[in-house]
Structure formats: structure tokens, C-alpha cells
Amino acid sequence: MKNFIDEFKAFSMKGNVMDLAVAVVIGAAFGKIVSSLVTNIITPVIGVLLGGVNFSGLAVIVGEAEVTYGVFLQSVFDFIIVAFVIFLAVKALTRLQKKEEAKPPEEKIVEPPEEVKLLREIRDNLRRS
Questions:
Q1: How many other CB atoms are found less than 10 A from the CB of residue 77?
Q2: Which of 32, 50, 53, 110 is the most buried (most CB within 10 A)?
């Protein structure tokens, strides 16, 4: 049992797993922001443009059941906007990466050791003689 726990600990502490956990948490928070943007800003604007329609309240009564297709439409709008924002973010990151790759690496000027300086000085003095 201890070996199993040690393996699980090693697995859960790998860099990829931790990165994935951070991404999920940030993604969930980002999803809430986008949902709020869609619910509170974009959907009302679309509703006004379409004559005051409130999508979240759209429903159809079928027998005794109420089909709230407006909530589904709201989810579709959320998905489209989230996908679009992620597309823009990935596109921007890709552009930044290409700019970084396009830059030539800066050459560092390495100061030669004292022995090399001394040998060069001796060589230069011998040439003058």
C-alpha cells in the first residue's frame, strides 16, 4: 500500500499534472467571467437588436413540460464566445512566440582569461620587434 501511495504522490507532483490543475482552475474562473459577459452584456444587446427578446426566458410548453430552449441558446452563445476568445488568445501567443523566435540571440562578449591577454600582449610585442 505504501508503494502505491508513493507512486501516486510522484505522479501527482509531476509538472504536467500541476500545470493541468492550474489550467483547470484558471479556466473555470475565466468561464465565469465570460458567462457574465455573455449574460449581462452581449445577450441583452442582441435582444435589443432583435426587438427586446430575452433569450433566457424563451420556452415552449409541450404537454405539461416546459422546454426552456432559451437557456440552451444562452449556453450556445457562451460556448461561441469562449471559443472565440480562446482562439484570439492562442493566436496572440503564437504571434508572440514567432517574434521571440525571429529575434537573433544576443551574442555575449566573453572576456578572455588573463593568460590569453598576456600571450596576446607578448605576441604583439614580438611582432613590433
A1: 17
A2: 53
Q: What is the per-residue pLDDT for 65?
A: 92
User: Average pLDDT by consecutive 10-residue portion of the chain (129 residues)?
Assistant: 83 75 86 80 77 75 90 82 80 85 76 88 87
Q: What distance in Å separates the CA atoms of residue 36 and residue 98, rounded to the nearest whole number?
A: 33
Which contacts of 79-85 are long-range, i.e. CB under 8 A and separated by 24 or more positions? Answer: 81/34, 81/37, 81/38, 81/42, 82/30, 82/31, 82/34, 85/34
Amino acid at 27: G
pLDDT at 52: 67
Those residues whose C-beta lies under 8 Å from the C-beta of residue 61, and which sit 6 or more positions away, are: 67
Strands 65-67 and 60-62: antiparallel
Which domains are present in the chain? 2-128 (1.10.1200.120)
Model confidence, pTM: 0.47
DSSP state of 51: T
